[in-house]
Amino acid sequence: MAVDRGTVMRGRDRAPGIPSVMRPDWILAIGLFIAAIIASGMLFVETWRILLGTWINIGTYNYGLIVPFISLYLVLRMRKQLVRLTPKPSLWGPLAIVIISLLWAIGNLSGVLVIQQFAVLALIPSTGLAIFGKSVMRSAAFPALFVILALPAGEILIPQLIVWTADFSVVALEFLGIPVFRDGPFIRIPAGDFHVVKACSGIRYLLTAIVLGALFAYLSFKSWQRRAAFLLVCVLVPILANWLRATGIILIGHLSGMKLAGGVDHFIYGWIFFGFVMLIIFLIGARFSDRSFKDPGALPSHESATQEKPIRPIVFVAAFIGVLVAAPVGTVLSSTLSDRAVRNTISLQSVALPSAIAGWERLDSLTTDWNTVFVGARLNRSVEYRDGDMRVMVTAIYYDVQTEGAELIGSQNSLYEPVRWWSRFDSKATYASEENLAGLNIRESSVSDGNRDRLIWSWYYISGDEFASEYRAKLAMFKTLIRGDGQGVYLLALAVDYDHDVADARRSMGLFLDDYLNRFRQCLAEPANDVGSTCD
């Protein structure tokens, strides 16, 4: 009797328990999962639109475009293992979706975009939990959660990374015997000047290294200890490599008389240098690998490899409906609270500021340029106070209703024009006097345009409370929305120009607040009431 060798070989290749065709329960589950993802995408379409725009338009986060496809590939490469399991919808899925939807609402109401974006990405594995169940999602945990690494986060690290890069460069240059002078992010050597900016912080390399490192660790190691150790290397080495890159740029400028430093930075010391560093890391990691790249991953030992009785279709449909019911919870809550806040908002026609008192003169316009950038502000008023040679500029920013991209706290806003001015330092400080023993927490910034130095003190005023921290201010704004009190939010900023000694500028600010802090509080606390001649 003739034997079909091709049939025999196909039978040998297929592992026991793996069906030759996909079972109906898997087909139904996958179809409902895709439909649920599309439905949630339409529900949070604005957040997805901003997220996609960030991936496309901001080079630091371009990697986010490929992360979802990598996650999908990781799932597909272990499909033969996954189909040996029986999908069982889990009630934990809709519960997780409700929590994530409420988290999105918190981000939306407080204006924290990264929370909203995290929520919409987290909805993907949560929807998988609802439709496929715990057994399947536990087996595909890494591929499912890997998609969250597409989150465009990390801006908060940039200022510190800039400081560390400048610190290392100065120490390295001094060690090499090159004369160096540093003023904040500016480094001056005999050959020329260098400015450590955002592109020099290394944030792009760091975030990309984390994504690539997590993927390599998953594919190369079985133990979580080795994976964690390798990922730690992928965090530390790119930071150190960026320090060497920045120092190398300065050295090339020094040795070439500033003829090569500009172009070399972006071509050789950019992605090519980063690629070389990551290649070395991967080669070293491969030496300690305990898993083949071709290994799609085995099922966890506690998962059954035998097929169980398929779940009835009505259960999958119920799970799908549960997702559709759970996902809008946050959007409904956010819309309800936002509409109430709009109805209760008291719109002001002007910002009331303290009148001049004995010894001080108030000018209703500035005698020097100070252009703040606050997109969508309801009111923006600047005045100037003088006492002899002492001059203090004051700017009050007011928002009544805040929307995405037009809010008091956001990366689009600035207390100075970034094109003309650069930051020398930015820190938190406390003003205190005998009358204000509790002190006033402020944000202290020093900026320069090359000819002038300017000290800026600023703080947020929200429902009678004052904050220097953006995060505490965001939380306070969220609380006002929950209460529905309808009060607007303020940012108050003082500025003093100085020549060399920042202590003189601080002294002027302190003397001014000794006379005026309580008056500012009175004017902002009762803007709609008759406060007599003390505010106008």
Whole-number mean pLDDT: 85
Helix content bin? 40-55%
Question: Biggest β-sheet: count, sense, barrel?
Answer: 8 strands, antiparallel
Distance between the termini: 105 Å
Helix-strand category: alpha+beta
The number of E-state strands comes to 11
Write the element-wise H/E pattern from the N-terminal end onward: HHHHHHHHHHEEEHHHHHEEEEEEEHEH
Q: Over the alpha carbons, how many angstroms does the gyration radius reach? A: 29 Å
- Hey, roughly how much beta strand do the residues contain? 5-15%
| Tertiary shape | flat
How many helices does DSSP assign?
17
Write the layout of secondary structure elements.
Blueprint lengths: L4 H9 L10 H20 L1 H13 L9 H11 L1 H4 L9 H19 L2 H20 L1 H6 L1 H6 L11 H18 L5 E3 L2 E4 L2 E4 L7 H18 L3 H33 L4 H27 L25 H14 L2 H16 L16 E3 L15 E9 L2 E10 L22 E10 L8 E9 L4 E10 L2 E3 L2 H14 L5 E10 L3 H24 L11
Antiparallel strand pairs: 1-2, 2-3, 4-5, 5-6, 6-11, 7-8, 8-9, 9-10, 9-11
Helix pairs in contact: 2-7, 2-14, 6-7, 6-14, 6-15, 10-12, 11-12, 11-13, 12-13
Fold and architecture overview:
Strands 4, 5, 6, 7, 8, 9, 10 and 11 form an eight-stranded antiparallel beta sheet that branches. A three-stranded antiparallel beta sheet has the order 1-2-3, covered by helices on one side. The longest helix has 33 residues, at 224-256. It has helices at residues 5-13, 24-43, 45-57, 67-77, 79-82, 92-110, 113-132, 134-139, 141-146, 158-175, 203-220, 224-256, 261-287, 313-326, 329-344, 470-483, 502-525; strands spanning 181-183, 186-189, 192-195, 361-363, 379-387, 390-399, 422-431, 440-448, 453-462, 465-467, 489-498. The chain is of the alpha+beta class and 536 residues long. Strand 5 (379-387) and strand 6 form a beta hairpin. It is flat and about 90 Å long.
